[in-house]
Every structure is written in structure tokens, then in C-alpha cells.
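As a representative case, we now present a protein record of this kind.
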Amino acid sequence: MEVNTKEFDKYVNGFDMNDRMIHLKYTHTFRVVDYCRIIAESLNLNEHDTFLAKTIGLLHDIARFPQAKEFHTFNDTISFDHGLKGSEILRENDYISNYVETEEDKKIVLKAIELHNKKYIEEELDERTKLFCDIIRDADKLDIMDSQGIKLDDNSKHFNIKAYEEIKNKELVTYTYVDNDATNILKTLAYIFDFNFKESFNQLKVHDIINRKYKLLESSVVKEEVDTVEKIINDYIDSRLNND
């Protein structure tokens, strides 16, 4: 079963593909689709469920395109919640029917997209819906970790102290604590504390994602802070790979 990339391309072509922001989200989308596939296959999901995971990957950022066009930002706090907006777009005129057929599948896709960008999933979900929510959340974070933080544009010498404490507590970093480039990378590294699947940790190693982040930080941040973060992160990854 193949995801409906033709319909998706038709949707995206309604925006300016020469816009760098639009292009970035388009390419991000297909990398996330592939991560969804990899995770689904690692879980031995059947053909239909692998298709469903990939479809969620295809649609997870569907609201980013109007967000970029209308607000010229990907900052949800000054535009709109792109998870909720994506769900709205797919509900309008039953647009989601172009991608999945059954009502059960539609409900899963809509809920996964609605929750994919939340700091935590706070509502009770049935086991099947939670599975697909977890897959897209891991896949999305993996690509963000891989593609962001290519360089430091400021002269960060220290992490934000509150974000640094959250890392020490193995917590996700609060967005409002990100006040320099180094802390933005710290926020990205902290995504591992919300990973759900062993394969997600395997992919970190396959793409050398974590070590590349350390090298960036070592070029700017004081050694003691980087060493502390490196030990916390490495120990956590090793524990998840060895115990899951």
C-alpha cells in the first residue's frame, strides 16, 4: 500500500515552492515518512499499519504550509498550533478521505497529527491510537535532531540555567528557556527523553546525530557543561538500548 503522495503534492503546489520555508517543510515531510516506515518495520507492523504510519508522517505538518505563507514563521506561539490546525485542514470537506478510507483510520490520523507537536501526551488514548502517536512523535523528533543545529550563529558560552537543570533531570527542555543557540541544541538533545522505541535510539547512532551535536557544542560552550550533558545523554541512550 502506497501513501497518496500525488494528492499531497497537489496540496503543496498551491504554495510557493520557491519559498525556502515551504521547501524545508516539504523535504522534512518525506524524511519523516521514511522514519515512520523504519520504526513501523522495526515493530513488525503489517502492511496496512505501516501504510497508516507513513500516511501520518506525510500529513503531520500539513498546516506548516499555510503557517509559512500567512505568518512567515514556524513559531506556533505567534501564529497557530500547527498540530490542531493540521487536524482542522484534514477535517474540512473531509479532505482526509483522499488519504485514508475507514473512519477508524481517519480518527487515528487526526489524533496523531493533533498531538504530534505537544510537549507531552496528557490525555488517555486507546493502545492502538497511542502507538501511532508515538511513532510520529519519534519520527518527527529524529528528523529535527538530524537537520537542525548545523552551526552556532551566536557566541553561546553557557546553557540557559533552567534548561540545563531540566536536562539533568532527564526532562524535555521548556521552549521559553531557549535563549541562545547552544540551549536550542540542548532542547533538541533532550528529545531522547521522550523517545518511545528502541529503533529511534538505533537511528541516532546510524546517522551519528548525537556526536554531531556534541561537536557543535564543544566549539563554543564551556567544557564542564558539555561534558555533563554528554554523560547524561550517553548513559540514557545506552540504558534504553540495553534494556528495551
User: Anything to note?
Assistant: The first helix runs from residue 5 to 12. The radius of gyration is 18 Å. DSSP finds twelve helices and no strands in the chain. The chain has a mean pLDDT of 96.
